[in-house]
Amino acid sequence: MRVALDATYSVAPQPTGVARYSRRLVESLAATDLVLTLAARPRSISALKRTFPNFQRRILQEPFRFLLPRDIDIFHGLNQRLPALRFRRTVTTIHDIFPLSSDRYSSPEFNSKFSKVIRDAVSRSDALIAVSAYTRDEICRVLGVDPAKITVVHHGIDPAAMVARETPDEPYLLTVGVVQTRKNTLAAVRTIERLPPRVRLIVAGGVGYGAEATQEYVRRAGLASRVEFAGHCDEAALDRLYAGASALLFPSYEEGFGFPVLEAMARGVPVIAARTSSIPEIAGDAAQLFDPDDDRGMADAAARILEDSAWAKQWSEKGRRHARQFTWERCAQETLAVYRQLVS
Predict the structure, then answer these.
(1) Class for domain 172-323, per CATH?
(2) Measured between alpha carbons, how far apart are the two ends of the chain, in Å?
(3) Residues near 306 by Cβ (< 8 Å), separated by ≥ 6?
(4) CATH of domain 2-155+327-343
């Protein structure tokens, strides 16, 4: 079977969850019997050549349609979009549809642009992959799609790097993700405010929509010495932060999947997260879950983890066991099953 994938995001210079998914899926599908072509938009084609030198590669943009193989069986859009080109069969992975379901989390311009992109991809796809049952249900609810068209395929999680857990002089909680309204970073700040002054918060992520409110709250509340905005962190830096964290705080309002929950678990970091969107599905019973605005409850949970090492160890071990279920090999095999069903 010949499959072309939009691998544009697999070589993003600052990888997000979508970028990690794109790259790991390509690598895992390469171990199957598929004949793969990697397509990318012009801005990413040079990076694609460096990253995947042994793959057939093509530019993915009009008017270069003649550069794509004419005999591919399936084109797979890995980031909820499809090119204008027509293919025999198409699959699109949908990560989340918050631009369609809410106007709280991004600008009207962003919502309008990406709503059109998602609607177009959904309407033109022969099959859809949703990264969680929650995302599948949202696609059906908001867009009226037949559930039979959608297959849920959870992401995998990379094996934890061999970085020993540390006990820093000043304990800190970690939150991972862009500082923005949707990620509810402000609730993590309010949680740390309720804890003893020796406990810090490190926020690993860039700046997004609504970040100003969180940054202003930190200044106004005099928390600048206790809240560190570390910006985007590469994988090595993130591993070091996980290694020293007492717990992950993840109070996000809306997640299509929620990579940091499993990243923390795989590294033995107890997880305190919101009981919203896909998070309960992905976290199972291996995280302590709260209403996303219950900073008091999250602070109480963090305090117990900081004070009770046996309690912290229990959550650490539960998380490690749970995270082992999520592998890229399984993700690739379940994706391959979608392809085979389309061409059968």
Answers:
(1) alpha beta
(2) 11
(3) 171, 195, 199, 246, 247, 312
(4) 3.40.50.2000
Average pLDDT on 254-262 reads 97
Per-residue pLDDT tens over the stretch 169-200: 899 999 999 999 999 999 999 999 999 999 99
Write out pLDDT tens, residues 220-233.
Answer: 999 999 999 999 99
Enumerate the β-bridge partners of residue 228. Answer: 202
Q: What is the pLDDT of residue 320?
A: 95
pLDDT of 274? 98
Neighbours of 115 (CB within 10 A): 16
Same fold, 2-155+327-343 and 172-323: yes
**Rounded Cα distance, 8 and 20, in Å:** 12
Q: Over 60: is that where the pLDDT of 65 sits?
A: no
Strands (E), 63-217: 74-77, 90-94, 127-130, 150-152, 172-176, 200-204
H/E element holding 192?
helix 185-193
Q: Do 256 and 278 touch, CB atoms closer than 8 A? A: yes
Looking at residue 300, its amino acid is D
CA 94 – CA 108 distance, rounded (Å): 20
Q: In what order do the strands lie in the sheet with 200-204?
A: 227-231, 200-204, 172-176, 247-250, 271-274, 288-290
Domain locations in the chain as residue ranges: 2-155+327-343, 172-323
Q: Is the pLDDT of residue 58 over 90?
A: no
Distance of alpha carbon 227 from its chain centroid, rounded? 23
Locate tokens 């993915």: which residue? Answer: 60
The length of the chain in residues reads 344
